[in-house]
Amino acid sequence: MIPAIRSEWVKFRSVRANLILIVIAVAAPLVLSILISAVGGFGEFTDRHELFGVTVIAPSMLATYLCGVLGILGIGQEYRHSTIRVTFAAQPRRSIVLGAKAIVYGLFGLAVGFLTSAVN
Asked: What pTM was computed for the model?
Protein backbone atom coordinates (compact mmCIF):
# COMPACT_ATOMS: atom_id res chain seq x y z
CA MET A 1 0.00 0.00 0.00
CA ILE A 2 2.88 2.39 0.77
CA PRO A 3 4.30 2.21 -2.79
CA ALA A 4 0.83 2.94 -4.19
CA ILE A 5 0.50 5.98 -1.91
CA ARG A 6 3.95 7.22 -2.99
CA SER A 7 2.97 6.77 -6.62
CA GLU A 8 -0.25 8.72 -6.14
CA TRP A 9 1.63 11.48 -4.32
CA VAL A 10 4.05 11.83 -7.25
CA LYS A 11 1.15 11.96 -9.70
CA PHE A 12 -0.65 14.49 -7.52
CA ARG A 13 2.35 16.83 -7.36
CA SER A 14 3.24 16.59 -11.04
CA VAL A 15 -0.06 17.69 -12.60
CA ARG A 16 -0.17 21.41 -13.33
CA ALA A 17 -3.96 21.67 -12.96
CA ASN A 18 -3.63 20.43 -9.38
CA LEU A 19 -1.17 23.19 -8.54
CA ILE A 20 -3.49 25.82 -10.01
CA LEU A 21 -6.46 24.47 -8.06
CA ILE A 22 -4.42 24.38 -4.86
CA VAL A 23 -3.49 28.05 -5.21
CA ILE A 24 -7.11 28.97 -5.95
CA ALA A 25 -8.38 26.81 -3.06
CA VAL A 26 -6.17 28.68 -0.59
CA ALA A 27 -6.30 32.20 -2.08
CA ALA A 28 -10.00 32.51 -3.00
CA PRO A 29 -11.38 31.94 0.53
CA LEU A 30 -8.80 34.37 1.91
CA VAL A 31 -9.83 37.07 -0.56
CA LEU A 32 -13.51 36.35 0.09
CA SER A 33 -12.99 36.55 3.85
CA ILE A 34 -11.15 39.86 3.53
CA LEU A 35 -13.92 41.28 1.33
CA ILE A 36 -16.63 40.14 3.73
CA SER A 37 -14.77 41.68 6.65
CA ALA A 38 -14.10 44.94 4.82
CA VAL A 39 -17.49 45.52 3.25
CA GLY A 40 -19.93 43.73 5.53
CA GLY A 41 -21.86 45.59 8.16
CA PHE A 42 -21.67 43.45 11.27
CA GLY A 43 -24.04 45.49 13.44
CA GLU A 44 -26.80 42.87 13.28
CA PHE A 45 -24.57 40.08 14.62
CA THR A 46 -24.78 39.85 18.39
CA ASP A 47 -23.26 36.39 18.68
CA ARG A 48 -19.50 35.88 18.13
CA HIS A 49 -20.10 32.36 16.79
CA GLU A 50 -22.40 33.71 14.11
CA LEU A 51 -19.82 36.28 13.08
CA PHE A 52 -17.11 33.60 13.00
CA GLY A 53 -19.32 31.46 10.77
CA VAL A 54 -19.88 34.28 8.29
CA THR A 55 -16.28 35.48 8.05
CA VAL A 56 -14.33 32.22 8.40
CA ILE A 57 -16.43 29.10 7.90
CA ALA A 58 -18.49 30.26 4.92
CA PRO A 59 -15.45 31.26 2.80
CA SER A 60 -13.69 28.04 3.81
CA MET A 61 -16.50 26.05 2.20
CA LEU A 62 -15.21 27.27 -1.15
CA ALA A 63 -11.94 25.45 -0.44
CA THR A 64 -13.93 22.32 0.37
CA TYR A 65 -15.66 22.40 -3.00
CA LEU A 66 -12.40 23.03 -4.84
CA CYS A 67 -10.74 20.10 -3.06
CA GLY A 68 -13.67 17.96 -4.17
CA VAL A 69 -13.05 19.07 -7.75
CA LEU A 70 -9.38 18.24 -7.27
CA GLY A 71 -10.26 14.71 -6.18
CA ILE A 72 -12.61 14.22 -9.12
CA LEU A 73 -9.94 15.42 -11.52
CA GLY A 74 -7.41 13.09 -9.91
CA ILE A 75 -9.35 10.03 -10.94
CA GLY A 76 -11.13 11.41 -14.00
CA GLN A 77 -7.99 12.54 -15.80
CA GLU A 78 -6.39 9.13 -15.51
CA TYR A 79 -9.42 7.41 -16.97
CA ARG A 80 -9.84 10.05 -19.68
CA HIS A 81 -6.26 9.81 -20.92
CA SER A 82 -6.06 6.02 -20.34
CA THR A 83 -3.07 6.37 -18.03
CA ILE A 84 -4.93 4.33 -15.43
CA ARG A 85 -3.96 1.25 -17.46
CA VAL A 86 -0.32 1.75 -16.56
CA THR A 87 -1.27 2.16 -12.90
CA PHE A 88 -3.32 -1.02 -12.93
CA ALA A 89 -0.52 -2.86 -14.76
CA ALA A 90 1.86 -1.90 -11.96
CA GLN A 91 -0.70 -2.70 -9.23
CA PRO A 92 -3.41 -5.06 -10.49
CA ARG A 93 -5.53 -4.80 -7.32
CA ARG A 94 -7.85 -1.89 -8.00
CA SER A 95 -8.83 -1.56 -4.35
CA ILE A 96 -5.25 -0.68 -3.41
CA VAL A 97 -4.98 1.93 -6.18
CA LEU A 98 -8.31 3.55 -5.36
CA GLY A 99 -7.56 3.40 -1.64
CA ALA A 100 -4.22 5.12 -2.21
CA LYS A 101 -5.97 7.82 -4.23
CA ALA A 102 -8.54 8.30 -1.48
CA ILE A 103 -5.82 8.57 1.17
CA VAL A 104 -3.69 11.08 -0.75
CA TYR A 105 -6.55 13.31 -1.84
CA GLY A 106 -8.36 13.01 1.49
CA LEU A 107 -5.32 13.97 3.56
CA PHE A 108 -4.55 16.82 1.23
CA GLY A 109 -8.14 18.06 1.48
CA LEU A 110 -7.86 17.98 5.27
CA ALA A 111 -4.61 19.93 5.14
CA VAL A 112 -6.11 22.58 2.85
CA GLY A 113 -9.18 22.82 5.09
CA PHE A 114 -7.08 23.42 8.21
CA LEU A 115 -4.80 25.85 6.38
CA THR A 116 -7.70 27.83 4.94
CA SER A 117 -9.48 28.05 8.29
CA ALA A 118 -6.28 29.16 10.01
CA VAL A 119 -5.47 31.79 7.39
CA ASN A 120 -9.02 33.17 7.35
From this structure: 0.78
- 28, amino acid identity: A
Alpha-carbon separation of residue 28 from 64, 75, 100 (angstroms):
11, 24, 28
By the 10 Å C-beta count (0-12 exposed, 13-18 middle, 19+ buried), 75 is classed as: middle
CA-to-CA distance for 15 and 110, rounded, in angstroms? 20
Q: Are 26 and 116 in contact (CB under 8 A)?
A: yes
Q: Per-residue pLDDT tens for 30-54? A: 888 888 777 766 666 667 677 777 7
Contacts of 106 (CB under 8 A, 6+ apart): 71
Give the count of beta carbons closer than 10 Å to the beta carbon of residue 110. Answer: 11
